[in-house]
Write a structure and sequence with these properties.
There is one protein chain. With 243 residues, this protein is mainly α. Helix content is 77%, strand content 0%. It contains 9 helices and no strands.
């Protein structure tokens, strides 16, 4: 209500990045031009098929939000938000289900994957709001707290998975070696520092001292570091041959 422009910006940012996700989803298929088969001949035991429906539904909801924001239909916009939040939650955790179906990639099947996807969403969401949202100092403090706590909890889960959790196989042990001291160590460990350690510290100081500049820096570092960590986490299992 204090920043009506935020309604359009929120839906717009979500729409852009969701469609980037959909684009890569389609391009990753063996037959990209047969993508429409998922809707005409659905196969609901496939997580990628379920995800296609969820992401498409979210896309439609975001288009409605953009239209309502453009037409200044704020009451309708707000009534639709709970539905959009629920579908967005499903879209957030869908990737964890997709990774869980990759039986030959052991570290993708960690029980904490769902939690990590949710934390990635709260970290990136609060970061984007801090960068584009404006708002008063109190709102920024709340967003900074969400950013810092998300970074700290995500870091704790990663460290626990790597150093405390027993690995199920020799392959999983080797994957951890690749991430911690192997060819992806710079990418992964650097991402942990840039994306989780630094934003947690900067967000804490920024909230305590009411420094919007520190919160903006924490936001940028959080987004960059999150990409580095997730990229390394996805690449590492694919470096090992399946047979």
């Amino acid at each position: 209500s204090e920043n009506p422009q935020l309604r359009f910006l929120t839906a717009g940012v979500g729409f852009v990045f969701l469609n980037i996700t959909l684009l890569f989803t389609v391009l990753d298929l063996h037959q990209p031009f047969r993508f429409w088969h998922m809707f005409v001949h659905p196969h609901f035991t496939s997580v990628i098929n379920i995800g296609a429906w969820i992401l498409t539904a979210l896309n439609g909801l975001l288009v409605l939000h953009l239209f309502m924001a453009w037409r200044k239909r704020d009451a309708l916009y707000d009534k639709l938000l709970p539905v959009t939040w629920f579908v967005a939650f499903l879209a957030t955790i869908y990737t964890a289900g997709l990774l869980g179906q990759a039986n030959a990639r052991e570290i993708w099947q960690a029980p904490a994957e769902v939690a990590q996807m949710i934390l990635a969403a709260t970290l990136s969401g609060s970061a984007v709001f801090l960068l584009i949202g404006g708002g008063d100092a109190e709102i920024k403090r709340h967003l900074g707290t969400v950013l810092g706590v998300s970074a700290l909890v995500a870091l704790s889960i990663f460290l626990a998975e790597i150093f405390l959790a027993p690995q199920k196989s020799e392959e999983a042990e080797y994957l951890i070696h690749i991430l911690v001291s192997g060819q992806l160590s710079g990418l992964f460990l650097g991402g942990l520092v840039v994306g989780f350690v630094a934003p947690a510290v900067l967000a804490y100081v920024g909230v305590r001292k009411n420094q919007a500049g520190l919160l903006a820096l924490a936001s940028v570092m959080g987004l960059v570091g999150l990409w580095l960590v997730k990229h390394a986490w996805l690449i590492a299992p694919q470096l090992i041959p399946l047979s």
